[in-house]
Automatic annotation (TrEMBL):
Residues in AB hydrolase-1 domain copies: 7-181
Naturally occurring in which organism (per UniProt): Hymenobacter cellulosilyticus
Pfam families: Abhydrolase_6
Gene3D superfamilies noted in UniProt: alpha/beta hydrolase (3.40.50.1820)
Annotated InterPro entries: AB_hydrolase_1, AB_hydrolase_fold
Keyword Lyase tagged: no
UniProt keywords, alphabetically: Hydrolase
UniProt name for this protein: Alpha/beta hydrolase
Keyword S-adenosyl-L-methionine part of the UniProt annotation: no
Length: 194
């Protein structure tokens, strides 16, 4: 997200950026959506009034799926999500598939996470809760050839989130979307007050 931070600072925005737990340069080897969300909440509480958030993948899922409470009452003027998963159970399944784990192990991972955090994994899924996210305006960009999060999940989010501005991209995959100058320009324009 460094390219986003640079582009937004160059456009005159004050930017607060951080690496979530077990991501980038942060410590830790494991994280969960609630852990990631708690880190986002801590940053939001210290940062003061927040006009907008740009979040990618797991961070986007934690920001919107929990959701994090911004500006005291939870209202956020602008929320831009990049390459966000639509289904939390599907994330567990993709992880299990990547490691060639049996379906029984994937199911146990879901059960463990649900027991640990006291809520169903589906309750974090943006296909279910997106429309409840307290953002005045929300924008979702997702690449048609995302190799990590299937494009169909973005389509499902868009179908279930009235008022969401959904803009597919082409040729950027899961990570290049964070460095693409055209996407960064869209963020600059989207974050501007009307």
């Amino acid at each position: 997200m460094g390219a986003f931070a640079q582009g937004l600072v160059a456009a005159g925005y004050r930017v607060v950026a951080f690496d979530g737990p077990a991501h980038g340069a942060s410590t830790g080897r494991r994280t969960t959506l609630p852990m990631f969300g708690a880190a986002i909440q801590a940053v939001a509480d210290q940062a003061g009034p927040i006009w907008g958030v740009v979040a990618h993948s797991f961070g986007a899922a934690a920001t919107a799926g929990l959701p994090v409470q911004f500006n005291g009452e939870g209202r956020l003027p602008r929320l831009m999500l990049l390459s966000v998963p639509g289904s939390t159970p599907a994330v567990f399944q993709r992880f299990a598939d990547l490691l060639h784990l049996p379906a029984k192990v994937a199911a146990r991972m879901v059960e463990f996470a649900e027991a640990r955090h006291g809520r169903s994994s589906e309750s974090y899924s943006l296909t279910q809760v997106g429309q409840q996210v307290p953002a005045e305006r929300a924008l979702l960009l997702h690449d048609r050839a995302d190799e990590t999060i299937p494009f169909s999940e973005a389509e499902d989010i868009a179908r279930n989130w009235p008022g969401l501005d959904f803009r597919p991209t082409t040729g950027l995959g899961h990570n290049r979307i964070m460095r693409d100058p055209a996407v960064i320009q869209q963020a600059i324009e989207f974050l501007q007050p009307e």
